[in-house]
Amino acid sequence: MKIICIGRNYGLHAKELGNDIPDKPVIFCKPDTAILKNNEDFYLPPFSNDVHYEAELVIKIDKIGKTIAPQFASKYYTQISLGIDFTARDLQSDLKSKGLPWELAKAFDNSAVIGQFVPLNNKNIQDLHFTLEKNGETVQVGHTADMLFKVDEIISFVSAYFTLKTGDLIFTGTPAGVGKVSAGDRLIAKLEGEELLNFEVK
Ligand code: ZN
User: Fold this and answer.
1) Ligand 1 centroid – CA 81 distance (Å)
2) What are phi and psi of 200, to 5 degrees?
3) What does the pLDDT look like over 53-99, one tens digit per residue?
4) In DSSP terms, which residues pair with 142 in a beta bridge?
5) Which of 8, 11, 75, 190 is the most exposed place for a label (fewest CB within 10 A)?
C-alpha cells in the first residue's frame, strides 16, 4: 500500500508557512514504513530539532481505480480517520530552499500516524469538523469545507498519475495551527467530537 499526501490544501495553513495558494494539488508520498497506529508512542527522530504535528482527515481507498472522474470518486472510499503528518520542518525548509524533494522531512519512519477508522455513512465528507489537542489545549481546528481541493477532486487528480489500490491512504492536508512537538506531549485528535487518536510523543 501507499500513502499519498496533499500539501497546502487549506489557505490559512499555506499562508502561515509563507506559501502561495496552489492552482493544482501539491502531492507527496510516504512509504508504508511511515505508518504508526494503535495509539503507539511516537519517538522523536534524532535528525531533527523541529518536528511539527499536522492533523489531517485521512481517507482509506476501498477498491482499485485509475483515472477516476470526480463524480465517481466517492465510490472508492467508505472509511475515514484522522492522522498526523509529522514533518521535520527544519529539514523541509532546507530542502525547499534548495528546490529538492521533501521525502527526508516528510516520509521517515512513523511519520504517518493514523487513528481508528470509522465509516463515513451518509455524512458529507466536505462538512466535517476536527480538532487536535496538545496537552489538553486545542491547537488545530479544521473544517473540511475549507479544503482548497475537495476529496473527490483529489482522488480524481491523483488517480490520473497513480493507480489507487485497496488500502491506500490519502492524507488530505492540514489546517492552520501547526507547531512543534516535544517529548512528553500528548496529542488527541477528534472528528466531530469523537476521539480517534490519542498518543504520546517520546
Ligand atoms: Zn500535511
Assistant:
1) 14
2) -115, 145
3) 999 999 999 999 999 999 999 999 999 999 999 999 999 999 999 99
4) 130
5) 75
Contacts (Cβ under 8 Å, ≥6 apart) of 120: 77, 78, 79, 80
Identify the helix (H) or strand (E) that includes residue 51.
strand 51-53
Per-residue pLDDT, averaged over 94-112, amounts to 97
Residue pair 152/70 in contact by the 8 Å Cβ criterion: yes
Cβ-based neighbour number of residue 16 at 10 Å: 14
CA angle 126, 130, 35 (to 5 degrees): 100
Cell 466536505 belongs to: 126
Rounded to the nearest whole angstrom, what is the distance from the C-alpha of residue 75 to the centroid of ligand 1? 24
Cell of 157: 487528480
Architecture of domain 3-200: Alpha-Beta Complex (3.90)
CA 68 to ligand 1 center in whole angstroms: 23
Q: Is the pLDDT of residue 14 over 80?
A: no
110-138: per-residue pLDDT in tens?
A: 999 999 999 999 999 999 999 999 999 99
Q: Tally the residues of the chain.
A: 202
Helices (H), 10-51: 11-16
